[in-house]
Amino acid sequence: MGPMSDDTVVVWDESLLAYDMGDHPLDPVRLELTVALARELGILDRPGVRLVKPEPADDTLLTRVHDPAYLAAVRAAPRDPLFAGYGLGTSDNPVFDGIHESSALIAGATVAAAEAVWRGDARRAVNVAGGLHHAMPARASGFCVYNDPAVAIARLLDLGAERIAYVDVDVHHGDGVQQIFWDDPRVLTVSVHETPLALFPGTGFPDETGGPGAQGTAVNMPLPPGVDDTGWQRAFHAIVPSVLRAFRPQVLVSQCGADGHRLDPLADLNLTVDGQRATYVALRALADELCDGRWVATGGGGYALVEVVPRAWSHLLAVATGGPVDPATLTPPAWRELAAARRPGREVPLRMTDDADPSYEPWQPTGEPNAVDRAIAATRKTVFPLLGLDPHDPRD
């Protein structure tokens, strides 16, 4: 690790919009509107913010995570109208022209963010186009072709990192990243998500704790459908700070999917942008406490394309680049016009808030537990002893 700059790198170029699956929930307009909102709010013009244009990850980088045969299949798929296999060509993962090139560019963008932080060029770095956490070594899954967080983590390991924490707050379990580093004690994967009993991908139970020699380095906090900000924050703070402090990471990598929001069409949690903003503040604080501020943040899921994602990730960019935006801030008129033009008929938010209070009562191992507290207790009981923590002590 080199001398630390206090800058923030934002990896962005409009070419990242080419990851376009067509008539599909993962519409790149959400990225266009996010960056446009952040620009209009002045977030990207703050002192110390540097925009970096990404380069595609090459095969050497991609094959740190993905099988060479899979890369060959991704390249070949657009030329074969009858292509099937490797999870490609499905409704979730349709084949499109340039699928390899655009997927490699997203991976390269997250790698650039990770390299900037590790080398000290920046204290924090963000790639809102990243977070494709479901991709497996030899299979596309859940809208994800190449697993950019995993590729970036592998790159950090190659550069000499010895302890990397990955925290995933997408509504879906971060299964691909967990699987890729299942046997690697240098990588702690933590996922807070809706229960796999109700939601794709069907994994992420508390008893998934890591492979032989890496027990305790996979941590899963599944939550029941309908959980709101209060319950979500209670669960996050009952699990995530403790396991990160026990692991003592050098770098924090996070996947900040916005699909836990109450308006998201693909899931069943009841979060608000105010709760999501509070989570980003907490992640930055943990990076500051444990990693000398080294924080690599990616986007992820999020399918309320106008109503939620641009506000949530503009809050993420604000937290990473200096300080949070006041929730009462009005969305700029020019951005509202752009959003209305890009998606006519959608309700365009007027403010950066949902008028919600994300405060919570810290978890305690006493009283009559509700569904959230039972979930917290299950995760703590299963994984905390593996990390030398007391599952019953709220100070751990």
Automatic annotation (TrEMBL):
Pathway annotation from the record: Ketone degradation; acetoin degradation
Membrane-traversing stretches: none
UniProt record, GO biological process: acetoin catabolic process; epigenetic regulation of gene expression
SUPFAM superfamilies associated with the record: Arginase/deacetylase
Presence of keyword Hydrolase: yes
Molecular functions per Gene Ontology: histone deacetylase activity; hydrolase activity
Region of interest (Disordered), residue spans: 349-369
Keyword annotations of the record: Acetoin catabolism, Hydrolase
UniProt superkingdom: Bacteria
Annotated Histone deacetylase domain residues: 24-318
Keyword Hydrolase set for record: yes
Record-stated family: Belongs to the histone deacetylase family.
Name used for this protein in its record: Acetoin utilization protein AcuC
